[in-house]
Amino acid sequence: MESPRQAESGSFNTNFFCLKLANNILLKKAAEDGSNTVISPFSFHLILSMIAAGSAGRTLEQLFRCLGSTSLEEMNSSASRMIDLALPVIDGRNGSAIGDPDLSFANGAWVAEGLKLKPYFQEILAGLYHAVAKEVDFANKAEQVVAEVNAWAETATRGLIKNLLTTEALEALTDNTALILANALYFKGTWAQLFDTSRTKTRVFHLSDGHKVHVPFMTSLGFQRYLYRSFAEFKILKLPYKSHHPAREFAMYFFLPDARDGLKDLLEMFKANPEYLNIRFDLVEEKIPDFWIPRFRFEFELEASEAMIQMGLDLPFDRMKAELTGMVYGSTGRRLFVKKVFHKCLIEVNEEGTEAAASTAVIIEMQQMQSMYPIASFVANHPFMFMIREDISGVVFFVGSVLNPLLNN
């Protein structure tokens, strides 16, 4: 048996910080409570890029290190190419969208009354992220603002992400809140080879703790060939999505440990080597007579600030050291800092393909002169891993794990 090796991937990849962040959360949840998990490194990368565009000094340098950039120009160029990957390709002759999967990506900004965006930051929000900043009253209309952000995320994700901002977010909004920055990603892909629903059967799924559940499993005709490879202690299966655009090749990868309780070890390996999610695995086409994949649908949410701080991205969250100085006028000299990072994903995998969505919202607050508040946290994971990646660029859109396909059905 062999291990994956580094290979040519594409002109740019999802950066290691966001992949490692996702993997750390998967691993923590697998060890903690056995929950299914799905996270969007793509969404995290672009929300951090947006924060970096309004940062300076050591905070900007730390964000550059996490994002794998050395300058604003390089970071903005990478963000622009990533955003282009998540937008529909338009046929210049008739103006209609062409190719599968169906993708969309949107950004939003809500600014406190009395504050004004600085010109460069406003230009970046509007020009690169296509976000129009709206003035809102965080102090007196917090419930209305939360409802508005939630409605925006729900609309942008075709109804999949509901209640991105929860009670915890509502409690975090005060008269010191300066900004909410958010993004929303939608993905719907059809398998290049559809599964036959008449062949779907209920079979046993073995949980990590030794228990069993009965779930619907999808299969195909025995003569079909799949991209597959067996490595040391795990196997990889690739299922491509239907596509009519030569510059885009989306696929879903399944990482199956050989041992029934082997997911934790597999996640540990990816934690130590996050670049594995960016490489080509040199898969080969093979017939797989015994081929079964469970159907599943679940959603996952977390407040990610503590996870980011633990990984070394601490300065944006430090009310005494954060240098988010390029965002707004009108904060009367008070330092801005990131207070909360809310992330929510949903994924459904069935015989036709995959539908998934993600949304991330960042609450940015103005420093108070005296009191210091602790940073709250909430993080998440399951028996196989998966990711959704655009293979030509190497950008990872979703990473997740499934411990029990019946959860959150």
Automatic annotation (TrEMBL):
CDD domains: serpinP_plants
This protein's name: Serpin domain-containing protein
Gene3D superfamilies noted in UniProt: Alpha-1-antitrypsin, domain 1 (2.30.39.10), Antithrombin, subunit I, domain 2 (3.30.497.10)
PROSITE patterns: SERPIN
Domain Serpin: 26-405
Family matches, as PANTHER family: SERINE PROTEASE INHIBITOR, SERPIN, SERPIN DOMAIN-CONTAINING PROTEIN
InterPro entries membership: Serpin_CS, Serpin_dom, Serpin_fam, Serpin_sf, Serpin_sf_1, Serpin_sf_2
Lineage: Eukaryota, Viridiplantae, Streptophyta, Embryophyta, Tracheophyta
Highest taxon listed in the record's lineage: Eukaryota
Pfam families per UniProt: Serpin
